[in-house]
Specification:
CATH architecture: 3-Layer(aba) Sandwich
GO molecular function: N-acetylmuramoyl-L-alanine amidase activity
Largest sheet: 6 strands, mixed
CATH superfamily: Zn-dependent exopeptidases
Radius of gyration: 20 Å
Number of domains: 1
Number of helices: 7
Number of strands: 8
Protein name: N-acetylmuramoyl-L-alanine amidase
CATH topology: Aminopeptidase
Pfam family, one: Amidase_3
Shape: globular
Order of helices and strands: HEEEHEHEEHEHEHH
Structural class: alpha/beta
Keywords: Hydrolase
GO biological process, one term: peptidoglycan catabolic process
């Protein structure tokens, strides 16, 4: 039957038969133990400009940084990541989240949940082969006066550095940072060190700063952060693959 359909699609294009590739999506594990890449056969009307992987850091038993008044990083990460996903989709990209709920990517009986979680995030990068990977996080420091977003990249990644520069510039401008921070090379963050492609880690705010912790919980500030990250991604991709003017 499959061979017959392929033959008809080739010989009789007027019938409107189309064979489309499976699309990659994420689905929540039925037991709430994390997410994994899943294939569906949903037809798409327009071609995607490519896949971008958005990684909301932490989740589940791992709250991430604990800020002022017990504010947990994991929830803020997910909210910003979801906003970024929508913005990227509006630009024609297929934005995939490593997690869509408050769940880590680990089995409950895993001996080392953190290690399994990080490995699974990197496995998604290997499977999806995204144009870029952006991991969303929040920062913390002993001095509550320290503020401002900062973007990290793997020290040996030239493309990672370019992406980090584009996002950092957009965030400093959009969030009106009084003392703008600069990008920083890193060789310890697991997702940067083990990512097979271009990846950056974005620390959107300092939860240890009462002022910034209050801002990052608002819809407006989260949207501004997501829009700035999206803008940086778009600038990087445009510079890497400039559109040719045929006029």
């Amino acid at each position: 039957m499959v061979i017959l359909l392929l033959a008809l699609a080739y010989l009789l294009p007027g019938l409107g038969l189309r064979i489309t590739k499976d699309r990659l999506r994420t689905r929540q594990d039925t037991k709430g133990r994390g997410t994994e890449a899943a294939r569906t056969e949903e037809p798409q009307e327009t071609a995607s400009r490519g896949i971008i992987l958005v990684d909301p850091g932490h989740g589940g038993r791992d709250p991430g940084m604990i800020g002022v008044d017990g504010l947990e990083e994991k929830g803020i990460n997910l909210e910003i990541a979801q906003k970024l996903q929508r913005l990227l989709e509006e630009e024609g990209y297929e934005a995939v989240l490593t997690r869509q709920t408050d769940a880590g990517l680990y089995e409950e009986d895993a001996a080392n949940k953190k290690a399994q979680d990080l490995k699974r995030r990197c496995q998604m990068i290997e499977e999806l082969e995204p144009l870029v990977t952006v991991s969303i996080h929040q920062n913390s420091y002993q001095d509550p006066s320290v503020q401002g977003p900062q973007v990290f990249y793997y020290r040996d990644s030239r493309e990672g550095k370019k992406l980090a520069e584009a996002i950092q510039e957009q965030m400093n401008e959009a969030l009106q940072v009084a003392s703008p921070r600069q990008i920083k090379a890193n060789d310890e963050y697991y997702i940067l060190k083990h990512s097979p492609g271009t990846a950056v880690l974005v620390e959107c705010s300092f939860l240890s700063s009462p002022e910034e912790a209050a801002k990052i919980q608002t819809e407006e500030y989260q949207q501004a952060a997501a829009r700035a990250i999206c803008g940086g991604i778009l600038l990087y991709l445009e510079e890497k693959n400039p559109v040719q003017d045929n006029a």
